[in-house]
Design a protein that fits this description.
Length: 749
């Protein structure tokens, strides 16, 4: 009976994927203008292996394309060969074409359903190989003696004839049955020596779920032991000494065995969880191919360099990470990387560079996607947002450049002038951020510099099944927080809270952080305080912080995360999952991004405030803390001042040069240019030689105060002992206006 070759196709697919990954990595290391001989040899061997394996299994389209790529690599192996950008692009197309064929074969393992190889690509490869050979021959003829050239020309026809003869079928060529036998002979040793088995993901997930339930049951035993301690003490008091000693020994052995078994179960679960881990190359390698294909479609040149693809993440994360990465890559190509003409005019290489890298940071994976394109202009972002009526002109006037940059995450925002298949549809980075925050339980940050490029940073847990969780008590209930959102715990007194226009705040490391009881944010009512001592949990999302008043920190440990039931997943929920704790307690895992959004909605509730006349004084506030800027803005606006914000000293100086302000309030500790340098620079400007400048900082040493006065500050206020009336009184005194405006204004709470 005929031998079934299809049983070997799956093994070929696995081998081909490995070979193609090596090809992709090898191509990434090549650079136009030179030839890395060793790398070319490795690429040649990989394609040669693919060609041979596919030919034996009658996968002719794969064979044809691999053979054409092999021809070009063979030409590049010759001395004096030079790799140009066109040849490198063709080799990338070979990789992409082979990968598409292999993946189609994986979906439908029937060789007859494979499409034919791209003949245009194969012809282009042949022509490129001939061009490389001609170029090498010309370079060699310039350096080789005439008699050697004549000898080579005399030898060439014979060599070509021999090669042609060798490629023709011979009477002794193996027939299909013989070829199948050869495949078996090649594969049989591997089947005898295989050290791995294939397990479906469904069965693995079921096993992981069952083991997770066992771990949760096991976690209840130590709790039960603690609960039995009072009973044990009563029992021991009633027993004779010899029985009491035996009972104590029995309890000790039981406790030790429970601890040992708990550790074994934890280790077993961790090892099983590792089986679900997949390398980031699963999404990184296709991303590199996307860059090449989309760049060609957009008429641009770009190459994606990958680092850290060996880092492993849980399969749940890998499955959901592809869409955000594809969107960010498309955004980089469409909006970031310029056309070759524009890049050359700007002094950049014609080919754009996109870097996709990953590294592990404790229990988290940090993924950075950067480009060397045009960067993002905050002013252009602001103008687009105003044009699309996403923000008002009044709101933009008070924004710093960092806040303007965050507008790209607003639903419906797009800078594209034309709707295309790639952009302009208003379904943009807001979807990416929501996916990262809500589904992947991570964070997304952006940095950009005009003309230099943009970088998106994703910080993700290594696994969604098990995470580091802080358990806190609030109103007699337990709630969990993912550790990636927690900055620190802070013990303070209620009288140390600062009273601002829209609620209390606390000073944490040189910044004002708004404060609110967690019970109030969750709708559980006001906390029942028994003393003036407060315990604050500081959480952070991007550049914003929030201090949550809690009753106590209960525990911090790695816990199994259970998703919400399907009926509870719809909509934006404050709870993102469930964790088991103790004997039978099911604890809600809170979602800090949603908590922050809820807090902003409550804080932005319209409140009556004094109307600012058109002649109201204009104040520039410079501070690198978003929370501090917002608090100071709300306070000053409540007193009728017009406020403009800047994130750091250099941005503040630029805004001060663009328009004249009546007063400047600045922090000291800021990146790029600190408050002392800003004050000194402002005093060099004619318009600010007599302008009131207030330094508001957490530095309280006398030498800092002296330096502030030396550089030209009119007042020096310390955040730790801050009182809002002192700021307003000082500002009014320096402005020579008891009201801060031309008409009396009283802040409305």
């Amino acid at each position: 009976m005929p031998l079934d070759i299809q049983r070997f196709i799956q093994r070929f697919i696995e081998e081909a994927r490995d070979q193609l990954q090596q090809v992709n990595q090898g191509l990434d290391q090549l650079q136009p203008g030179a030839v890395d001989s060793e790398q070319i040899h490795r690429l040649f061997r990989a394609l040669h292996t693919l060609k041979g394996s596919s030919r034996m299994l009658k996968l002719l389209p794969l064979t044809h394309l691999a053979h054409s790529g092999e021809d070009l690599l063979s030409a590049l192996r010759e001395p004096d060969a030079v790799l140009d950008a066109q040849a490198l692009d063709l080799l990338y197309q070979v990789h992409d074409g082979l990968q598409q064929l292999v993946e189609q074969l994986a979906q439908e393992p029937d060789p007859s359903l494979l499409p034919e190889a791209d003949e245009a690509l194969c012809r282009a490869l042949t022509e490129a190989a001939q061009a490389v050979q001609r170029q090498g021959a010309e370079m060699s003829s310039e350096a080789v003696a005439p008699e050697a050239v004549a000898e080579a020309e005399a030898f060439a026809p014979a060599q070509a004839l021999a090669s042609l003869t060798a490629s023709q079928p011979s009477p002794t060529m193996p027939q299909p049955r013989q070829q199948a036998a050869a495949v078996i002979d090649e594969v049989r040793p591997e089947l005898q020596t295989s050290t791995s088995v294939r397990v479906s993901l469904e069965r693995l997930d079921e096993l992981l779920q069952k083991l997770g339930e066992v771990v949760q049951c096991q976690a209840a035993f130590p709790v039960m032991l603690r609960q039995m301690k009072p009973l044990q003490q009563q029992t021991l008091a009633a027993l004779p000494p010899e029985l009491s000693q035996a009972w104590v020994q029995h309890q000790r052995e039981w406790r030790d065995r429970v601890a040992a078994q708990s550790q074994l179960m934890e280790d077993l679960y961790d090892q099983l969880l590792q089986l679900r881990m997949l390398p980031l190359s699963q999404v990184f390698d296709p991303a590199a191919r996307l860059v090449r294909e989309q760049a060609r479609a957009l008429g641009k040149q770009a190459q994606c360099h990958i680092e850290g693809a060996q880092l492993e993440l849980d399969r749940q994360l890998i499955d959901q990470l592809a869409d955000p990465l594809v969107h960010l890559l498309s955004n980089a190509l469409d909006h970031g990387i310029e056309t070759p003409e524009v890049r050359l005019a700007a002094g950049k290489p014609a080919q754009g560079h996109i870097q996709l890298e990953a590294q592990q940071d404790g229990h988290w994976a940090v993924i950075r996607l950067s480009d060397d394109g045009a960067g993002i202009d905050p002013q252009r972002v602001a103008e687009k947002a105003r044009h699309k009526k996403l923000v008002t002109a009044e709101e933009l006037a008070t924004m710093s450049e960092a806040e303007m940059m965050q507008l790209i995450f607003t639903p419906g925002f797009s800078t594209s002038e034309l709707i295309t298949e790639f952009s302009g549809r208003g379904v943009g980075l807001d979807v990416v951020r929501r996916k990262v925050q809500d589904d992947l339980k991570g964070t997304l940050q952006i940095t950009s510099q005009v003309g230099q490029g943009t970088c998106f940073t994703l910080r993700l847990p290594l696994s969604l099944a098990r995470m580091r969780v802080l358990l806190v008590a609030c109103q007699g209930r337990l709630f969990g927080f993912g550790a990636q959102y927690v900055v620190e715990l802070l013990r303070t007194r209620s009288e140390d809270l600062l009273d601002f226009a829209q609620g209390p705040a606390v000073v944490v490391h040189n910044e004002f952080v708004p404060c609110i009881p967690l019970s109030q944010l969750l709708g559980l009512g006001q906390p029942k305080r028994t003393s003036s001592s407060l315990l604050l949990l500081i959480i952070k999302l991007q550049h914003s912080k929030l201090a949550l008043e809690i009753d106590a920190l209960v525990d911090e440990k790695d816990l199994l995360i259970e998703p919400l039931p399907p009926l509870l997943r719809a909509g934006e929920k404050l709870v993102t999952g469930l964790v088991h704790y103790g004997k039978d307690e099911l604890v809600s895992l809170l979602h800090p991004p949603r908590l922050m959004a809820t807090f902003r909605q409550q804080r932005q509730t319209p409140r009556p405030r004094a109307e600012a006349p058109t002649s109201a004084k204009r104040i520039l506030v410079v501070d690198d803390s978003l929370s501090t800027r917002e608090i100071e803005r709300d306070l000053l606006q409540a007193w009728g001042y017009q406020v403009v914000l800047a994130e750091q000293g250099a941005e503040g100086l630029e805004k001060a040069q663009q328009q004249v302000f009546d007063a400047v309030i600045t922090d000291v500790e800021m990146p790029i240019m600190d408050g002392f340098s800003l004050t000194a620079a402002l005093r060099q400007l004619e318009a600010y030689q007599h302008c009131p400048i207030l330094i508001l900082t957490s530095r309280e040493k006398e030498e800092d105060k002296r330096r502030g006065l030396e550089v030209g500050a009119d007042a020096y206020l310390v955040k730790g002992s801050f009182d809002q009336s002192s700021l307003i009184d000082t500002l009014q005194l320096l402005l020579g206006d008891a009201t801060g405006a031309e008409t009396p204004l009283v802040p409305q709470r």
